[in-house]
UniProtKB/TrEMBL annotation:
One of its GO terms (molecular function) is metal ion binding. This is N-acetylglucosamine-6-phosphate deacetylase. GO terms for biological process: N-acetylglucosamine catabolic process. Its cofactor is a divalent metal cation. Pfam families: Amidohydro_1 (PF01979). Belongs to the metallo-dependent hydrolases superfamily. NagA family. It comes from Collimonas arenae. Binds 1 divalent metal cation per subunit. Keywords: Carbohydrate metabolism, Hydrolase, Metal-binding. It comes from the Bacteria. Residues 1-23 are annotated as: Disordered. It is an enzyme of class 3 (hydrolase). The gene is nagA. Transmembrane segments: none annotated.
Amino acid sequence: MTGGDQANNHPAQQTGGKLQGNVLTPQGWVRGALMFERHITAIDGVTADPVDNQDVYILPGFIDLHVHGGGGKDIMDAGDAVHVIAAIHARHGTTSMLATTMTSPLSDLEQALEACGDACRNRRPGAARVLGVHLEGPYINPGKLGAQPDFVQEATLVEVARLSAMAPLKLITVAPEIAGHLEVVRTLSESGMRVQIGHTLGTYEDGVQALQHGASGFTHLFNAMTGLQSRAPGMVGAALAHARYSELIPDLLHVHPGAIKAALRAIPRLYCVTDSTAATGMPDGEYMLGRQRVHKCMGGVRLGDGTLAGSTLTMDQALRNLVGLGLDLADASQRVSTYAADHLGLEDRGRLATGCCADLVVLDRQLNLIAVYVEGEQIDLTAV
């Protein structure tokens, strides 16, 4: 592909495992060709600024570490739900994801984890890779449930180990102020598991202590945590002052654009998640979020009392929202892909380089998806 006239005809198609356009590599933009099978085999081209041409963009596939649902299905539905959800999100550019649970009775959680474990072992055609599970609860503060139902309990290492045997737990959200949780945070972090602070009434000091004990970041920054005040900086203050990583929901409903910009300046590797629910990709109406009934209306998802309850955001829209806030495309790409991979310690995803998984998205100049590849497989973006 060369020149602007061809770009309007969407020339970036899979042809013998070769894509042409503006390729975003870890070293910057290259105008040329990317060759791949299941993994990227070569990138050939010359350094070039995409502003100087009209070719398509080729970016790393999106990585979403907080996915509750989509297509009318919720992770807590167990059974086939996780496969349906992974397919819905793949059609919006998500190539890897963490299936995210809700606070629930242990019997519900166990059923969901068994299904997620199967999905981690067996990616179905047309679906995103399920890397593992984000356990969002039940180890949270009952005073900061947000949209989580009240089945809260204290964390124990024995129980976490038992749950981890059902599905790979990659990320756990914990309220660090609960008695005994700091030592759990330390032990899990030392084992290589990522522990995030969230759904918490903890103070600034609680947040600093948790980070010192190995906590790696914060769950949906600003939401379901104590806010920043001048003499009580709260958990938000701890994140802005000390965090290297944190997730944030950039649907422009959960967090004001000004707060997003403040977090972008303060947290070096702020990355984006959808916190998507069963209502994602569905018409307005009533859906389930774990055991909670939620309502989709006017682009948002809420409980009956008006509390925000996840989102209908997709990662392609998250990218467009970030660019709309003023980020350049390369920076925005890192925040929907690379930094999430780095947070989990994944060196073969979230970047376009020889030897990495062929997880790719191709976008036109308006940042609309043209093509998505998961481990080299082209996803049918029109599938129902």
